[in-house]
Structure formats: C-alpha cells, structure tokens
From TrEMBL:
<feature type="transmembrane region" description="Helical">
    <location>
        <begin position="356"/>
        <end position="373"/>
    </location>
</feature>
<keyword id="KW-1003">Cell membrane</keyword>
<feature type="domain" description="ABC3 transporter permease C-terminal">
    <location>
        <begin position="262"/>
        <end position="376"/>
    </location>
</feature>
<dbReference type="Pfam" id="PF02687">
    <property type="entry name" value="FtsX"/>
</dbReference>
<feature type="transmembrane region" description="Helical">
    <location>
        <begin position="423"/>
        <end position="445"/>
    </location>
</feature>
<feature type="transmembrane region" description="Helical">
    <location>
        <begin position="797"/>
        <end position="820"/>
    </location>
</feature>
<keyword id="KW-1133">Transmembrane helix</keyword>
<feature type="transmembrane region" description="Helical">
    <location>
        <begin position="21"/>
        <end position="39"/>
    </location>
</feature>
<feature type="transmembrane region" description="Helical">
    <location>
        <begin position="258"/>
        <end position="283"/>
    </location>
</feature>
<feature type="domain" description="ABC3 transporter permease C-terminal">
    <location>
        <begin position="713"/>
        <end position="820"/>
    </location>
</feature>
<dbReference type="InterPro" id="IPR038766">
    <property type="entry name" value="Membrane_comp_ABC_pdt"/>
</dbReference>
<feature type="transmembrane region" description="Helical">
    <location>
        <begin position="758"/>
        <end position="785"/>
    </location>
</feature>
<keyword id="KW-0472">Membrane</keyword>
<protein>
    <submittedName>
        <fullName>ABC transporter permease</fullName>
    </submittedName>
</protein>
<keyword id="KW-0812">Transmembrane</keyword>
<dbReference type="InterPro" id="IPR003838">
    <property type="entry name" value="ABC3_permease_C"/>
</dbReference>
<feature type="transmembrane region" description="Helical">
    <location>
        <begin position="394"/>
        <end position="417"/>
    </location>
</feature>
Length: 835
C-alpha cells in the first residue's frame, strides 16, 4: 500500500487534466442535494424557532363548530398567564351595494390579539381601530381583497351581510403562515362585532382557537397532558410551539425528500460521465500500466494506485460540491427567506451535508468500479503494441458483488434519510428503469444507424453521420443516457401540468359544480333552491345537511394507533345523515326507514378499505363535543373526482339530526352565469358562503405549479450535469473527429460537407434523445395523472416538441464547441500522428 500511495501521489502531480468532467458531474450532483437539504433544514429550524409566533401563542386549544363554555374558559384562564380567543371561518365579502363579491377567510379576534408578534397595517393603526367609526365596526383587509372590491380606507362594505368599515390594509399577520393554503383573501374583524349575528349561529361552520401564553416555569408537555385529560371527548384539538405547523413541516419533509431524490437522478447522470471519464483515463494510462506490469507490479498494486487517485478526486469533488451547495444557500439566504411563505432560519445543518457527501461518494464508487475492474485483464505486451482493446461484457463476479452492495447501501441510505420508503423506492426505481430504457434505446439506435448507413451513400453528409453514430466507439450511448434522463423528468412535469390544465379547462364544465354553498340555514333552504333554479343557466342544485366531526376511536382504540396518519383522521371531516343512500352500496345494508335505534354509519368504500374497516366495526366520532359511537352497516362507492357532494361518513338521521347544523349545496351552472349568481347571493342570502369551484381549483393549480417549478429546477441540475457529460463525450471524441475530417478531406470532402455531417450527427442524436425522453416522460406523466391523481391523461404535442428541440440544441451546442478544431486541422499532420 505504501508503494501504491507513492505512485498515486506522483501521478496526481500531473494535475486534473482529463478529470474536469468527472469533478463537474460530482460537484453539481452533490451541490444540488446539499442545497435542497439545507433549505429543508432551514424551514424546519425556522418552524422550531418561530413556532410560538406562527402559532400566535405557546399553545393553542381549538374547538370546531362551537366556542368554549364558561367552565372551559375558566380552566384555560386558570392555566394561562394570558390567552386570546379568535374565531375563523369562510364568508362572503361584498361592496355595500352588492355589485362586487369575493370569498374571504374571516378572522374575528379579541383585544388580546396578537399575543406574539405584530400585524403590519397600512396605514399603521392600533388594534383598537377594529372598534370602527360612527358605530360601524372596523375591519382590516388583505390588499388583494380590498383591490378586488375596489375599497379604500374609510369605505364601508359587508361581510356575511354585516356592515364594516375598512380601517387599514392588512399587509402581514404574525400567525398567517400556519394557516396554509386558503381559498379566500384574509379579513380581520373584532370578535365582539360578530356576537349575536348569524355568522356565529348554531350550525355555522367555524373554528374557535384559544392561544395561550404559559406562566413562568410552566411545562408545555404537562399542560398538554392536563388539557387532553380535561377536554377528553370535547372535540378539542391541541397544538403547541414545538409543532406549530405540522402540515407545513410534513409537506416540507416530503417535498424536500423528493427533490433530493431528483438530485440523485442528476448524480446518476453524472455517473455516466464518471464512467466515461474513468474509462478514457485508463485508456490514456495504458503506457503507465504497461510499465508497472513490466516492472513486476501486481494487479492489486495497480488497482490500488488507480483507486487511491479516484478516492482523492472523489473527496475533492464531494468537498467542492458541499461548499458550492451550502455557500449558495448562505449567499442567497435573503432571497430565499423573501420567497418562502414560512419563516426560515438559514445555517449550516450537518445532516444534509452528510447525506449529500454519502450519495456523492457511493455514486462515484458505483460507476467508477466497472471500468476499473478491467485493469487486471490488461497485459503489458499488448499495451505497448497498442493492440489491447476494451473487452465487452461484465466485470468479474467479485466486482459485480461489490457494485451491487454499494447500490444496496445507496438505496438504504436514501430510504433512511427520506423516511419515505415507498416514495424513495418508486422514484429510484423509476430512475433506474428510465436508465435501462435509455441504454436499450441507445443500443437499438446504433444498430439502426449501422443498417441505414449503406443505404445513404448518395448523401455523403448523412452517410458519414450515420456511420459515426453506429461506430464501435460512438458517443450515442453517452449522449442519450446523459441527456435523456433530464429531459425525461422535464417531459413528465410538462405532461402532468398540461394534463391538470386540460382537466380544469375541459372536464370541469361538464362534471363539476360551479359553487359550493356553505352555512345554509335549513329554514332558508327551499327558498334558496327555488330562487337559484329560476336563474338562467342553473341546471341543478343539490342540498344535504352537513356537520363536522373528528374520528377519535376505532373499536374503542385511538384511531391513529389503528390506521396511522390517514387524511380522514387528520382534523375534522364533514359528515351528514340521510334516510336513503346517495351512492350505490358496495357492501352491507342500509338502515330501514324511520330507524330510531343505536347510531349507525355508512363509510365510503375506498377510505374504509384504507383505514382497515369492516362491517360491524364501531367508530367514535366527536361532533360538537359529544362522542357518537356508531356501528358500520355498509360501504358506499363515493366518487370524489366529480367534485360534487360526497361524504366519507353518512349517519342514520336519528343519530345526529338533532344537533345544530346547516345545509351544504352544490350549484351547477356555466361559467358565464357565475358572476350574476354571486351578486344574487350577496344581496338575497348574505349569510350563505359561496365557494367558487373554478377559483378553488385555480389555487390548487397554482400550488401544484409551484411544486412543478421546484421539480423542474431540480431537474435542470440533471440537465446541466447531462450537458457536462455531453461536453466530456465531445471532448473525448475530438481526436476521432479530427481523423474523420482528415480522411474525408483526403477523399475530396469540403469543409461545408464535413460540418453538415457533424451537425446531422448532433441533430439525429439530439432528436433521438428527445424523442425517447418524451416517451419515458409521457409514460411517467400518464402514471401520475391516472394512477395517483385519478385524472385523464392528454398528450401535449407542444411540450413534446419543445423537449425534442431542447435535445437537438443541447447536442448541437456541445458538438459545435469541439468541431472547429478538427475542421481546421491539416490532414497530413493528423494522419501522420496516427501512424
């Protein structure tokens, strides 16, 4: 080993010539993974350090559909140094004359709000401004909402039929980041202004939150335990500063982990460049290997020499990648903080650096070991005579076992770091499958080029291009592998985005309602339906009673211990009751008419299967602070994709019909009728909240677009790495191009013909890489849209053409950079050098 170290050190003195692509591929991949990981950790650190401000207190107790009783408020006051009460709901805001309307996320606050942080207002006024002017209560409005209604400070407007005066524009709320995505701009009013109004009537959909500051020395864990005991069965939900925004934290973890996996795809592309670099390096070092052989060096010593050099270069590349990734986050921390919807705390977290370094080292080892294993097969005599050629086929079994072990270690590390085994294995499996498809396609393209070359002799430029693509040392494989994977990811993202836009634009008018109407008082239901059906364009109005409940137990056991973090168990869910089924039954029987026995419930079949439920199981659902224990008698086929009325849980009427509740309705009408219907609702039914489905879908589409943009940015690193591999392949083939150009010149070819040949080669390879990427990306897009999102796949030809054009441009650019030298070289000098 000492001898190997000395030889390796001597070899490394020659510099990094020939290893620039190796290092660039490694640096880009490691930097991308490190940067994504650092952003993920910065968000988590920000949530931890600013949790109390985001929450609006050190702890929060939330009740659905109701406010705390006097006794419950007394308990909260007894255990808090200070607390604040606020109510949140959706409502309709409109101008005083009802000409303009908009959905708003209403927050009604008491005088103690905000306990922590400060609201930023324009003009800067105090919280007492919510008292209003001239007996009219005041309000703060999000600028988007104020502009939409055309309101200025001092103007009067209505929320839920109640008149308010705009006191200031709400620029920032300290506790807004925790709210996540909402379908209406924010408005803030005084809680006292809603007392006694229909907005807080029994059955109205609202949440009441009590934010708490703890006394000195009080322990959050102890208070949580006491609160859960005191409010057991009361429908209370607890949150505290240690997990102020669990949904944001969960989303950050999952998206961050997925983007790291996309970064691993970039490293896989870089692995192609590493493989090619090591293979070319060993070929260049044939004289050195022969000399070492002739001097008696064993195969193990020679392998050790090369392994030491590769280890040193890998270490250099990994360190440079970590510095680049972490440095970029630190350098642009201000910009990142500005665009993030939640507070972040940028710093150097150790975990993402370790993760990126491990991925980089394992990837380099996996792709370098394959060509390195051939060292033991090279013989000194044939190397001196330059008659040794690289043997095709697999490396020795020992090397294959080592590569397999390292690949397994990479998969295990990815699963452990992400904590999402299904997502990790499916994503990496997709990357591996794409690489296999691309490699197979590259082999097929080379064979096809060899067959077509003899048929194109009358077109010299095309003939030379096809012959070069089909040649034994063709760059086709490297080009298609390097470029194809990055283009495949971009193609998949483009097809998914196009599919979602198509679903919204084409399916929505046929299948989805125009509005959901919330908080319809039962006495007003018939009049509202009659009035709406009299409007031109309205084809259908469906109504059902609606309450909200929390599934707390399954067969007497805490629900989450039985079924995990299923979405049905996260927070409260809409529930209804019915005499007859609205959907077809898949299993079991419906209750008889006028049933008056113990509570029964019907569950949607798909969600019931996911929760592991069966007929006869007992569900405990907390509704308005009361536990309803109901037996499952049937499962229903509920199709939520139509966006019509659908409930996971439907009870028999006797179980919950006596509870205060309002109705929910869906209104089916064309887009042209929506504005008129909104004005009608604002004037005649101001307490009813109308949620435009198209507007809600647009918000969802924006969120999905932001995710797609993040994935596209991560995929661009893959493309950049692929382009680096293209440059490496073009540089490695420069001598071959020079010999090819010299021979063609001797045979009478002009520079223009040779240049056209090079360009045709680039166009054919780029088009092939792009076409294969479109096929792979379309397959991935189809799987995401149809299997995950349960939507319809529509092939987008424009996106496909852009991907193919991108592939052509990339290969043309890389090829052009290394085509001018061979064209300018004199044939005699090139051909004599090859003697």
């Amino acid at each position: 080993m000492r001898l190997a170290l000395r030889i390796a050190r001597a070899e490394l003195r020659g510099g990094l010539k020939g290893f620039r692509i190796f290092l660039l591929c490694l640096i880009l991949g490691v930097a991308a993974i490190a940067a994504v990981g650092e952003v993920r950790e910065a968000i988590k650190a920000g949530l931890a350090s600013e949790g109390a401000v985001m929450l609006g207190g050190q702890a929060e107790l939330e009740f659905t559909y109701r406010r705390a009783t006097a006794e419950e408020r007394g308990w909260i006051a007894e255990h808090a140094a200070q607390f604040s009460e606020l109510v949140e709901m959706r409502s309709m805001a409109s101008t005083a004359d009802g000409a303009e309307t908009a959905l708003t996320q209403l927050k009604a606050v008491d005088g103690a709000w905000p306990l922590l942080g400060q609201a930023v207002l324009d003009p800067p006024v105090g919280g007492d401004a919510l008292a209003g002017q001239g007996g009219t209560p005041g309000a703060f409005l999000d600028p988007v909402l104020a502009d939409r209604l055309g309101l200025r400070v001092g103007d009067r407007f209505k929320i839920g039929g109640e008149t308010f005066v705009l006191m200031a524009r709400l620029l920032r709320e300290p506790d807004a980041a925790r709210a996540g995505m909402s379908f209406g701009a924010r408005s803030v009013v005084a809680l006292s202004a809603l007392e006694g109004t229909p907005l807080l009537a029994p059955g109205t959909l609202y949440e009441t939150k009590y934010r708490v500051l703890l006394p000195e020395g009080e322990n959050i864990a102890a208070l949580k335990a006491a609160a859960l005991t005191r409010f057991q069965g009361a429908g209370m939900k607890w949150a505290d500063e240690t997990h102020a925004a669990p949904s944001v934290e969960r989303f950050t973890d999952r998206l961050g982990s997925f983007l790291v996996l996309v970064g691993l795809a970039g490293l896989a592309v870089g692995g192609v460049g590493i493989f090619a670099t090591v293979q070319a390096w060993i070929a260049r070092k044939s004289a050195t290997i022969a000399t070492l052989r002739a001097l008696g060096a064993s195969g193990g010593t020679i392998r050790a020499v090369f392994l030491i050099q590769l280890a040193a270069l890998t270490l250099l590349g990994v360190i440079a990648g970590l510095v680049l990734g972490a440095g970029a986050i630190l350098a642009f921390s201000g910009l990142i903080s500005a665009v993030m919807p939640v507070p972040i705390k940028v710093g150097l977290a150790l975990r993402p650096l370790i993760e990126a370094a491990l991925y980089g080292a394992l990837t380099a080892a996996i792709f370098a070991l394959w060509p390195l294993a051939r060292l033991s097969e090279l013989r000194a005599a044939t190397l001196y005579r330059e008659s040794e050629t690289a043997r095709r086929g697999l490396p020795p079994k020992g090397t294959l076992a080592l590569i397999a072990g390292l690949t397994g270690a990479l998969l295990l590390a990815a699963v452990l770091f992400s904590g999402l085994p299904v997502l990790t294995l499916s994503t990496l499996g997709g990357v591996a499958g794409a690489l296999v498809l691309l490699a197979g396609a590259a082999v097929a393209i080379r064979k096809l080029a060899r067959r077509l070359a003899p048929l194109s002799t009358r077109r010299p430029a095309l003939h030379a291009a096809l012959a070069a693509i089909g040649a034994p040392r063709s760059e086709a494989t490297a080009v298609i592998l390097a470029l194809g994977l990055g283009l495949s990811v971009l193609s998949a993202v483009a097809q998914v985005q196009s599919g979602l836009r198509g679903a919204i634009a084409q399916e929505l008018p046929r299948e989805a309602p125009a509005f959901f109407l919330l908080d319809i008082p039962p006495p007003e239901r018939d009049a509202l339906v009659t009035r709406l059906m009299a409007q031109e364009g309205v084809s259908r109005v469906d109504t059902v009673p609606m309450l909200r409940g929390i599934v707390t137990e399954i067969n007497g056991v805490e629900a989450r211990k039985v079924a995990g973090e299923h979405w049905v168990l996260r927070g409260d869910r809409g529930v209804t009751f019915a005499e007859t089924p609205r959907e077809p039954l898949t299993e079991g029987e419906w209750w008889p008419q006028d049933y008056a026995g113990p509570p029964l419930v019907s569950v949607s079949a798909e969600e019931g299967k996911e929760l592991g439920l069966k007929l006869g199981d007992r569900l405990t659902v907390n509704i308005l602070g009361r536990d309803i224990i109901a037996t499952i008698t049937s499962f229903r086929d509920v199709d939520f994709s139509t966006m019509g009325i659908g409930f996971v849980l439907t009870f028999d009427p006797a179980a919950i019909s006596g509870a205060p509740h309002n109705d929910l309705a869906t209104v089916y009408a064309p887009a042209a009728a929506e504005a008129g219907l909104l004005r009608l609702m604002a004037k005649e039914f101001p307490t009813v909240t109308a949620v435009p489905v198209r507007e809600a879908l647009a918000r969802v589409s924006e969120a999905l677009g932001a995710i797609a943009t993040a994935v596209s940015v991560a995929a661009s690193v893959t493309l950049l790495t692929g382009f680096a591999v293209l440059l490496g392949a073009a540089a490695a083939g420069e001598d071959a191009r020079a010999r090819e150009a010299a021979l063609l010149k001797v045979l009478g070819a002009t520079r223009g013909l040779i240049l056209r040949s090079f360009a045709l080669r680039a166009v054919l390879l780029g088009a092939a890489a792009g076409a294969i990427a479109v096929a792979v990306g379309s397959l991935a897009g189809w799987a995401v849209l149809t299997q995950v999102m349960e939507s319809t796949f529509r092939f987008d030809p424009l996106a496909a053409l852009l991907v193919v054009a991108g592939g052509i441009v990339a290969v043309l650019l890389a090829g052009t950079l290394f085509a001018l030298g061979p064209l300018a070289a004199r044939p005699a000098r090139v051909l004599r050098a090859a003697e």
